[in-house]
Design a protein that fits this description.
By secondary structure, this protein is an alpha+beta fold. The chain contains 5 helices and 10 strands; from the N terminus they run βαββαβββαβββααβ. The protein starts with a strand and ends in a 24-residue tail after the last strand.
Length: 269
């Protein structure tokens, strides 16, 4: 019997984890998920994810797939898997894969949300869900600056020093910066992201929002292509993988922001 490919949507609070990817001797989201699924299958299950998240980073909807060597109905993976998972990781949906679906290689875009608590006092409730900034932020200026990053660019000024990606080029589909009372929210979508790219962009936008740099600084950094000239990396707390987008034929993309993608969006090779 051939393996059956299953696709899952995973929600998690990354506070207690050393990131998504399995690591020897450390607790990771992937490690916990594989342990739970392996109990349902009664043998080892390995999952492939759409995008690895760092320590402390959360996900509203990470997408994974795995090939099961045993027959189980979707309800078993969903409810059974959750019964073996810790409370800060949940499988939120399960469905069979269509054709050659691959969680990583079939994706045409990833969307992240960065949440900033912008008030004089820290929060007891949002301390790991939002980054705190006590200085007033001008969300409109941050949004204007973010629009300078749209399109295909060399994002060398926004990649981590140890980033292992062969190319620094990425296609930025949209960035929306807006205020909801005491929260400043950044929704950012690209075909793929460099290591720490979202957090580095956020750091730059915060500097602009505080009035420490002009709006044009975002475009200047694209031209400079020098990470050392940009702002400090924003903390992992506040960063959430919001959704992963795929061509419609796979039936996986569920978030409303999918409608904002250009119709000719293609996966990143």
């Amino acid at each position: 019997m051939s393996n059956r490919r299953v696709v899952l949507g995973i929600e998690y609070d990354g506070t207690a984890y050393a990131g998504w990817q399995w690591q020897t001797g450390r607790t990771t989201v992937q490690g916990e998920l594989e342990k739970a699924l392996s109990k349902i299958a009664n043998q080892a299950i390995t999952v492939n994810c759409a995008g690895r998240t760092d320590a402390g980073v959360h996900a509203f909807e990470q997408v994974v797939h795995f090939d099961s060597p045993v027959e189980r109905d979707l309800q078993a993976w969903l409810m059974g898997g959750n019964s073996y998972l810790p409370d800060d990781i949940r499988i939120i949906w399960a469905q069979p894969a269509v054709a050659d679906f691959h969680a990583r290689y079939s994706a045409i875009a990833r969307c992240y949300r960065y949440v900033i608590l912008n008030r004089p006092m820290k929060s007891a409730l949002l301390k790991t869900q939002a980054t705190w900034c006590y200085q007033p932020l001008d969300a409109e200026k941050m949004h204007q600056a973010a629009q300078l990053l749209l399109g295909e660019h060399d994002f060398s000024s926004f990649r981590a020093q140890g980033c292992q990606s062969v190319s620094p080029n990425r296609i930025m589909h949209f960035i929306d910066v807006y205020r909801q009372e005491q929260l400043v929210i950044i929704d950012i979508c690209a075909n793929a992201f460099l290591h720490h790219m979202v957090r580095n962009i956020t750091g730059v936008l915060m500097e602009i929002g505080m009035g420490k740099q002009p709006i044009s600084w975002a475009a200047d950094l694209l031209t400079i292509k020098d990470r050392s000239q940009a702002a400090a990396t924003a903390p992992p707390y506040g960063l959430h993988l919001l959704s992963v987008f795929y061509p419609e034929q796979y039936g996986v993309s569920k978030h409303p922001l999918f409608e904002k993608l250009p119709k000719d969006a293609k996966r990143f090779d």
